[in-house]
């Protein structure tokens, strides 16, 4: 029961609740549960913790399955339970391996093994690294560590802090003091390891949120109305440096929308600006379908006309596709079973893993489409020193009024803090927002409203430690600690 409670508590440490100290409490309870347990019992407790963590934390997935999957309620609940059970295997593995390897110095094994299990969760079967512990600290004072260690390091801090609380409970005061000291001293030193700063004039931006109902987004009878709506929302907001529309804001496939796109391209250039929009690119010659971002209007400051033409290079094609939503594994078997496995646009083609930044009105834009923002290594691989803005688009209408969109926005903010670049996030129905990682200030639109966020952001230059080196130094440290701890335990067993 305690393991289940600990897992459920984690949900309230993430957005929209953001009671971040609960992540430490949850980890302290898990440490209590796992203390001196044999590996078989540790695996069971780790699984129960993980099942509750994901069953409650990503319960919003059920919204899309129930509303758009075309399955009976009992089947959709079973699918949700199966997903939570699969994800729970990773904390179960970390708990079991730690119990098997440790005789003493438990924490020195648990932290590296947990990080390894989280890496596996984020890579196996395309990966699903949602709700990793570190995201709970996005809005905490400890977020000063993110530009140095990334969310990866913050996850280790949650484990360390939770273990410190557990040590307080069992009255091992020295271990509790050590844990607290490491976190406090690291937080004090972190700001000195970064060199990011504001530079230049503010950039004026307009984020357009169309609020198109999900069931209408790919209805051909609604295409013209949707395209006209985005055009009308933008008409009074051309007086900016950059206009951004969300994922697949233009519902018509790109090759069929040339007249419309050329018109927007000319209008943007005429108003001395650029516009980035999501669109689906179906290429008849190859049958490839890409979830794409394209730039319309001015590419460079000095341009006098728009630069758009079909298949121009100033575009981004989504690399990390969402299972079931954008591609269906074992599709010959699964597609006939239910509408869930045969959604519109569920046969996308992968883009390249590393692509050039978009160039819009002289700005270098680091893009990520929807699910991709969760993958810190992918976003960092596409980061360049000259990147001006982190830009992500999404369509969270699949998840209704759940906590899923709030968690998605929190994850995007973490990417901005890690890389030290201002964030633009534009979605179909929310959360559409800007975020400044230096000031920590955020501006956003209300969900489920058609609106435009017309505001400005500050350009940030310099590089964070994490942007330069990523996880490499911290993986090296974690693995070194693991090897030393295993060696110490081996010596104890041989005595």
From TrEMBL:
Transmembrane segments: 12-33, 45-65, 71-93, 105-124, 144-168, 175-193, 473-490
Alphabetized InterPro entries for the sequence: Apolipo_AcylTrfase, C-N_Hydrolase, C-N_Hydrolase_sf, LNT_N
Location(s), subcellular: Cell membrane
A single Gene Ontology CC term: plasma membrane
Protein name per the record: Apolipoprotein N-acyltransferase
Pfam families associated with the record: CN_hydrolase, LNT_N
GO process terms (BP): lipoprotein biosynthetic process
Gene3D superfamilies found in the cross-reference section: Carbon-nitrogen hydrolase
Similarity annotation: Belongs to the CN hydrolase family. Apolipoprotein N-acyltransferase subfamily.
Domain CN hydrolase: 208-459
Top enzyme class: transferase
Protein encoded by which gene: lnt
Membrane topology: Multi-pass membrane protein
A molecular function (GO) term: N-acyltransferase activity
EC number: 2.3.1.269
Sorted UniProt keywords: Acyltransferase, Cell membrane, Lipoprotein, Membrane, Transferase, Transmembrane, Transmembrane helix
Listed NCBIfam families: lnt
Function per UniProt: Catalyzes the phospholipid dependent N-acylation of the N-terminal cysteine of apolipoprotein, the last step in lipoprotein maturation.
Pathway this chain belongs to: Protein modification; lipoprotein biosynthesis (N-acyl transfer)
Entry-linked SUPFAM superfamilies: Carbon-nitrogen hydrolase
